[in-house]
Amino acid sequence: MNNKIFLDDYILTYEKSCKYLSNLTDINYHNSKRFLVNTIGTTNFSFPINSYEIGYGSNHVVIIGTTHGCEILSTYFVIETMINFLLDKSIYEKYTKKYTFHFIPILNPEGFIISSSNVYENVFNLNKKELENLCTTYLEKYNIDDDNALKQICLPKKYKKVLKSSLNYILYKDLRKSVHDILQDCNLAQDVLPIWSANGIGIDPNCNSIHKFNEIAEYKKVNKYGKLRYNDIPAYKPSPIGFHGFDPLTKKCPETYYLNNFIQNLYKKNLSSKKEKLLAIFSYHCTGGEIFSYPDLSICSKSNYDLHLKAIDNYRKYTNYIPRDENLKFGYMDYYRSTLEKVISMTIELSRKNGNPIGPFSNIDDILEEVKLNKIALFNTIDYISSII
Ligand SMILES: [Zn+2]
How remote is the CA of residue 204 from the centroid of ligand 1, in Å? Predict the structure, then answer.
């Protein structure tokens, strides 16, 4: 991977992302590189969930951004990686022989639209310094809110007052109406729109999975609200963040339902073909520079567990991100890392600074350095995984 940045438009919206992706599609169609756009499913409000398939190799690798709507940096990272990959001839030739990549830059288009259209109204006319100042202010308020929540001080949330927000910034009428109804039901104001993580009907795709679905439903009966600065947001019913859904992997949460069909179809190759296999899944989020990739030892094989330990260690070497072995493992990536044998499934939290959606951009040079390190980590880890499986 080149040690440089190709995409100098850091805070993306849905429409801008689609424009960059359709430009890439056109350019590569004319270059006659193998570049396929697969719509793996559509969301409740009919937005396509697209996977961009690049390469000819027998080892399949899936790279996912924006499971949580407000993690706009993760979509930037996936598109930047695609551009870098396609423009760097030596990287392209080396990797496309051995691998087929499936880039899914926006798993959750509805959540991304809700969050990023609100963010955009605040940042579109700012220069770099002004943008950094706004993001720094946001991050500081967000941290104060966390501090207050930890000390059980009950004050209005300061982070909500930094960005102007409105339902009217959501251009799509049916989606806007659904979000309006959820806010009313949750007794929340429009100032939570920038941190919207769920899909358009208030299900958080990250939590919607077969793995520990019943346990997480029980947990939410007791722990009804989110953590820290989100402790006023319900997580037990449709809401902006944290609701696991009504049932696991059904069309009510199309993001995880169709992703699961897609992943299981790729995994069939591991069981039926000696030539092709699903090698790895990388899901990018944006909070805190951490690696969540320990499988659940109670259900996964020892050898699969050990493979994940090695992959974590390898990714950490390039990024210095902190591996986290959380107690309650749930959600679709936990499901894959514990049940797909000899497939490495990694969840990477980009950005050592938290404060989604804009906290990571409070120092743009710093975050771009992290993006570069993660691109290097991603491709080196793919090679490493391929050498141990
Ligand atoms: Zn996330």
Answer: 9
Domains of the chain: 14-110+254-388 (3.40.630.10)
> Rounded to whole angstroms, what are the CA distances from 217 to 200, 250, 320, 338?
20, 16, 34, 20
What percent of the chain stands above pLDDT 90? 90
Beta bridge partners of 348: 284, 291
Q: How far apart, in whole angstroms, are the C-alpha atoms of residue 80 and residue 78?
A: 6
Would you call 316 exposed, middle or buried from its count of C-beta atoms within 10 A (0-12, 13-18, 19+)?
A: middle
67: CA distance to ligand 1 center in Å? 6
Q: How confident is the model at residue 330 (pLDDT cuts 50, 70, 90)?
A: confident
Beta bridge mates, 285: 349
Both tokens of residue 353?
A: 């600074």
In this prediction, residue 26 has a pLDDT band, given cuts at 50, 70 and 90, of confident
> Which pair of tokens denotes residue 342?
């000899």
Ligand 1 center–CA 97 separation, angstroms: 32
Rounded distance between C-alpha atoms, residue 201 and residue 244, angstroms: 12
pTM of the prediction? 0.97
E runs forming strands in the chain = 35-42, 48-55, 59-64, 99-104, 277-285, 290-292, 322-323, 344-349
CA of 383 to the centre of ligand 1 (A): 26
Would you state the pLDDT for residue 189? 98
pLDDT digits (tens, 9 = 90+) for 189-222: 999 999 999 999 999 999 999 888 999 999 999 9
